[in-house]
Amino acid sequence: MPVFDRPRFHIDHAVRRSYATTLTATLLGLALAMPAVAAAPSSLSLDSGWQLRLVPGQAQADQHPQAAKWLPAQVPGSVQSDLIQAGLVADPFLRDNEQKIQWVGLSDWEYQSTVNVDAALLAREHVELLFDGLDTLAEVKLNGHPILTADNMFRRWRVDVKPWLKQGQNVLSITFRSPVEAMRPWLAKQAYGLPGAYDSAFGDEPAGRNSSIYVRKAPYQFSWDWGPRIINAGIWKEVALQAWDETRVDDLYVAQRRVDADAAQLDAQLTVEADHSGPVRVDVQVLDPDGQPVAQLSQQRTVDAGSNRIDLPLRITKPRRWYPVGYGAQDRYTVVASLHGADGDTQQLRRVIGLRTVEIRREKDQWGRSMAFVVNGIPVFIKGANLIPLDSFPSRVTEATMRRTLEDARDANMNMLRMWGGGHYQDQRFYDLADAMGIMIWQDFMFGGAIPPYDVAFRENVRAEANEQVVRLRNHPSIVLWCGNNEIQTGWENWGDAEKIRKVAGDKEISRIEMGMTTLFGSVLRDAVSLNSPGTPYWATSPGTDFDGPADQLDDGDMHYWKVWGGPALPVTEYLNVTPRFMSEYGLQSFPDMRTIRAFAEPGDLDPESPVMRAHQKFDKGNGNKRLLLYIRREFGEPKDFESFVYLSQLMQAEGIALAATHHRASRPRTMGTLYWQLNDVWPGASWSSVDYYGRWKALHYHARRFFAPELISALRNDKGQTQVSLVSDRTTPLAARWRMRLLDVDGKRLSQSEKAATLAPLSSLSVGDFSDAQLLKGADPKRTFAVFELLDGERVLSRNLVFFAPAKQLALPQPRIDSQWQADGDGYTLTLSSDVLAREVWLSLGDLDAQVSDNAFDLLPGEPLKVHVRSKATLDQLRTALQLRELAGTLAGAPAEPAEVK
Q1: Which residues contact 571 (CB under 8 A, 6 or more apart)?
Q2: 440-444 and 479-483: which strand pairing?
Q3: Cα–Cα distance between 490 and 496 in angstroms, integer?
């Protein structure tokens, strides 16, 4: 397969002038008016004044004539979001409208704006156009002159435009080609298509011939098993015009040569582009987390024409190091570098950094070979989830959404998010927030599972992308790992579509494919990290062993485990039989909150097999709700109605993931990390997320707050009726505690109780018991009896876990009457709930009122009140009236039609 002959994307459509609105970017006055002598670089945003249209001559113009006319365009943005805003395309998130937007991604689009330029600007030595992101196959013209052909969504493009600028109005146009249509003729001629991508559900590409593999564009936009097919196009990041004369400071990186409790030895590395040789003075100052200066240096240097790197050594005594959340403070230093030119102009860059060391500890032991993150010498047990993009339309994501997403992770006691490789690199603000919150980021390069082309042009395009992205993000202490890809090695070794390719391609072609993967992920991306961010580890592929052997091994490296839910759909108790060194993917699906469902569906759609519910269920081509019901029925039986189906899907997910994550934590130090799939959603629908598209927590996220708590009592009952009890502590100091076991019946009668003292060593898991059902029950009825295991510090319950002796559908659960009491409390209200019998998995909702609750999806023990803090702008009477409670016994077939009685 001649991958190296992939088409280059030179666009033939003529640039047309328009009567479009003019971008009044007159560079006269404050912004870019320049005196005759050299001056500091200046930049002007070109984000406003754009418009777009279908490229003339396309067949789509007949069906969509309004789209062939100039329309206002938002930059940053996308064609699709602008068409939705203009009312020319239905919102693809509603009902089954996704199909109605597909034509947009199969079309070519033209953007245009006008820039006014004056003589002062033209007098500058250098005038450059800077695109932070073009999505994706784009040809840029200025006054009809081609100035850039872009082919990578993840790269930044800088173009010298002074030769093509003129005084007065200048027309800037960008034509975006559909990647599907651009690749179609070439792909049709190939002997095979590279494997690993999802086929289109809309028939616009032949199965196994996926254009997404061959272009550097966010793979998830071509659809995934949790998200829609919306192939965005447009100027998705900022645009600016920059002017400079003698020097331009491009970057400031603070390399950390040595960091420990005694000293931090640093190099402030300034990257400077110079027009010609000449002297400069560089001043560097370091401010501590309180804003006080702790180090400074000034030096005279000479720069030469082209790119220059100026290194200045710095030393900080007794540094305040950055720690992950839960292990110390997120102290950060501010480094300010100033470059003074010979003419007296000054440029300044400022970076906020965290001082820390990180390593991936790989040691042979009795279980194989370890994989542990060690931060500032502390082996940190990783607790977290996988992060997918925050929206199907990246430019719609606000800083508030980024903040909320990271706060959701922190508030569930997570310390890491794995930024999965099928999406896109996040905005700088996201990493700033992660730094401040102490959330570690496992950062994938953007390869989601498809086998990449092996040609040199593709590889060099990726090399440039990787260098740019690592340089952009390397000052962030939160990024503790760069990973080459998601599931490419394991896909090649284990997946059926890769096996089909082996039968079609010859040995030489297979060798070229494998060499291409090894070179790209073993050398190119590894070099990008080691050269640009040597203090950050690199990992070749996930799951994997860093190319030390086969991928997805139980005893070495990280593992993705999908035999529960995927493939054979094994029961959730199978999680207890899998003890990896590091679990970086596993998951169960659920539906989102009913309010979220009602936001995209009509009342007649509320059935798991309705066309709309199938359209919002991407697993197995819409058949995933059958898989959901399989898992629900195994544990809970038949849901009595659609809302009960949604509720039980969330319980099934929460309890199954809790079982796995608790097992992983109890298996420390054999297992040193657990990242479930997935934290968030790109649109509203069924998925593996614990927080839905609108930021509403599912039952899993409330459970995660408990099973990721710093102190945990693990009580895990396997399918043979054995319960193993362990005490887990993430504290860095010992904990003198006690643990208690109570045996209760569902009506609240205490059948037995025992209690023991225990000292938990720092960063440890301590096994304290292994009990058979017979030992625990002592003859009690297993359908009416349950065990309560608790870890206590004094009288405070640090952690609680319940063990049941039969599946929920076999338990003799009574119908509870739950008492509720409200009381004003600080910034909200305290809701006290109590029941005289066991109420399992109580779900508290407040209708359409906007409210935050401190806990949910909890077991309410007989006679033991539970307090929930509620924050809302609603009045107490409104909250009291809106309160609804759902619990397990009332959701199964045969239960009363009304939810749990609330007094």
Answers
A1: 564, 634, 719
A2: parallel
A3: 11
pLDDT at 460 over 80: yes
pLDDT above 90 covers what percent of the chain? 92
In this predicted model, what pLDDT tens digit does every residue of 481-538 receive, in sequence order? 999 999 999 999 999 888 889 888 889 999 999 999 999 999 999 999 999 999 999 9
* Cβ within 8 Å of residue 844, ≥6 positions away: 831, 833, 853, 856, 868, 883, 884, 885
What are the contacts of 364-371 at 24+ separation with CB within 8 A? 367/555, 367/579, 367/581, 367/670, 368/553, 368/554, 368/555, 368/556, 368/581, 369/545, 369/555, 369/556, 369/557, 369/581, 370/581, 370/669, 370/672, 371/556, 371/557, 371/558, 371/581, 371/582, 371/672, 371/673
C-alpha pair distances (Å), 708 with each of 7, 13, 207, 777: 49, 56, 41, 28
pTM for the structure as a whole: 0.95
Neighbours of 522 (CB within 10 A): 17
Dihedral class, residue 138 (left if φ above 0, else alpha if ψ from -120 to 50, else beta): beta
SS3 785: strand
Torsion of Cα atoms, 618 then 624 then 625 then 631, to 10°: -140
Query: Burial level of 593, CB count in 10 A (0-12/13-18/19+)?
Result: buried
343, β-bridge pairs: none
| Cβ proximity of 698 and 650 under 8 Å | yes
Buried b / exposed e along 52-71 (16+ C-beta atoms within 10 A): bbbbeebebbeebeebbeeb
What's the DSSP call for residue 522? Answer: I
Of 251, 213, 217, give the one whose Cα is nearest residue 231: 217
Q: Is 755 exposed, middle or buried (0-12, 13-18, 19+ CB in 10 A)?
A: exposed
Q: Is 685 helix (H, G, I), strand (E, B) or coil?
A: coil
263-272 residue pLDDT tens: 999 999 999 9
Q: Scanning the structure block, which residue is given the tokens 């004369």?
A: 245
- In angstroms, rounded to a whole number, what is the distance separating the alpha carbons of residues 218 and 231? 9
Q: How confident is the model at residue 22 (pLDDT cuts 50, 70, 90)?
A: very low
Q: What is the pLDDT of residues 357-367, one digit of tens each?
A: 999 999 999 99
Q: Contact, 903 vs 651, CB < 8 A?
A: no
Q: Tell me the C-alpha to C-alpha distance, in Å, between residue 672 and each of 369, 556, 658.
A: 12, 12, 16
Q: What number of other Cβ atoms are within 10 A of residue 361's Cβ?
A: 12
Those residues with Cβ within 8 angstroms of residue 93's Cβ, 6 or more apart along the chain or in another chain: 228, 392, 600, 683, 684
* pLDDT surpassing 90 at residue 591: yes
